[in-house]
Amino acid sequence: MKVADKLQEVQRQIQEACDRSGRQPDEVKVIAVTKYVSVERAQEALEAGLLHLGENRDEGLLEKWDKLQGEPVWHFIGSLQSRKVKQIIDKVSYIHSLDRLSLAKEINKRAAQPVQCFVQVNVSGEESKHGLSPEEVMSFVEQLAQYEKITVCGLMTMAPLTDDEQTLRQCFKKLKKLQEDIQSREWPYAPCAELSMGMSNDYQIAIEEGATMVRIGTALVGE
Ligand SMILES: *Cc1c(COP(=O)(O)O)cnc(C)c1O
Predict the structure, then answer these.
(1) Gap from CA of 188 to ligand 1 centroid (Å)
(2) At how many degrees (to 10) do helices 3-21 and 39-47 cross?
């Protein structure tokens, strides 16, 4: 199936989720996650009008950054090793996986310009997942004040892999509550207005619960 056709279906689902929750579709940015697919397929996504692309590994990002024709806005969505920061930092506009001070320090050291960062939160507490526990987030964000190249644009989470709607909603609601708590502090370096949540399996629910960026791979570019 063509990316353009899949995109139409995703846009229809976004519209419906927005209708159900009194939101506007232009409040929700779609990030096409191209980590599973070829350069050609990623090119097709760009041509279908998807401007925001996401990769979770430095190799994938560097290869596509090199070969794609056009100027996508790159999102780094995977866990990031400090020693990889140098290679990707001037190629990405957003990092969705800030989860420790040592990484913040490295980003601060390597970036030429302030970088839009999402603090990753492990809301569900699953051991397999990266991110801070909800209890740790506020003091972590507070400590980021010392790094002038870090802008905390929002919070990111990966929901548990389940079809249970209540579990998913609770997870997204909790992230939104944290985001609003941080936003209300009005720290200049942490506007924290964005919520990066929702993947192929759960983006409709994430949007109903306030997502401003959804990261969609399979449902958008899967073959
Ligand atoms: C792979 C990935 C996605 C997209 O997953 P799909 O289920 O294919 O939509 C989103 N976010 C992160 C962090 C990922 O690693």
Answers:
(1) 30
(2) 60
d(CA 28, CA 26): 5
Neighbours of 27 (CB within 10 A): 12
Q: What pLDDT band is residue 198 in, cutting at 50, 70 and 90?
A: very high
- The Cα 169–Cα 171 span in angstroms is 5
- Ligand 1 site residues (CB inside 6 A) read 33, 35, 56, 77-78, 158, 199-201, 215-219
In the chain, where are the structural domains located?
3-221
Within 8 A by CB and 6+ apart from 39, the residues are 63, 64, 67, 68
Structure tokens of 151?
């802008």
Model pLDDT, residue 218 = 97
Architecture per CATH, 3-221 = Alpha-Beta Barrel (3.20)
Query: Beta strands of the chain (E only): which ranges?
Result: 29-33, 52-55, 73-76, 94-98, 115-120, 150-156, 194-196, 213-216
